[in-house]
Amino acid sequence: MTIDEYIAAQPEGIRETLAAVRSTITAAIPEAEERFSWQMPTWWKRHNLIHFAAQKKHLGIYPGAEGVEAFKAELEEKKLKYSKGAIQFPYDKTDLELIGRIAAWCGRNNA
To answer: Which terminus of the chain has fewer CB atoms gathered within 10 Å of its CB, N or C?
Structure first.
């Protein structure tokens, strides 16, 4: 599967958000290669840097445990749910600016 196919297979109401997230991550780490890994859109440079996945009620961003830790205070301030390696963005509160900064951090610190 390709990322285009993945986005096209999602419900119509979230496709625009997913396309915007894809563009945001690609702009933040243009040197990374887009791949489809672990059944998710993935950006890769020698190894996986960051993934995203459409969930029923939220967008999952997967920057790894260190990526979550680096943004933990801001995630708590914005009242976003997160776990060891994942961040949940409700579709109506998708923060492209924050996602771009997280992706750029992953590109700098995980490459």
So the answer is: N
Q: Which domain holds residue 9?
A: 3-109
Nearest of 102, 60, 53, 54 to residue 81 by alpha carbon: 60
Is residue 82's pLDDT more than 90? Answer: yes
| Closest C-alpha among 99, 106, 97, 100 to residue 82 | 99
Give the residue carrying structure tokens 């790894």.
Answer: 64
Q: How many domains, in total, are found in the chain?
A: 1
* Geometric angle at alpha carbon 42, from 27 and 10, rounded to 5°: 95
- The CATH number of the domain holding residue 98 is 3.90.1150.200
Instruction: Tell the burial category of 15 from Cβ atoms under 10 Å away from its Cβ (0-12, 13-18, 19+).
Output: middle
